[in-house]
Specification:
mainly alpha
Amino acid sequence: MDIEAFPLKSEYTLTESGLEMIEVIKSIKLWALRWKIKNIECGSQDCGQCVL
């Protein structure tokens, strides 16, 4: 085995259906936060405000 071949690098990308699923997951997250007893802002980097 060639030691100069390390570290191996792999890159992954989502398929079109995987990218579409992101919106579904975000919607479920908003729903869960809306119905949570103590609704705390999540601080996620991809949204500025969790509760509509």
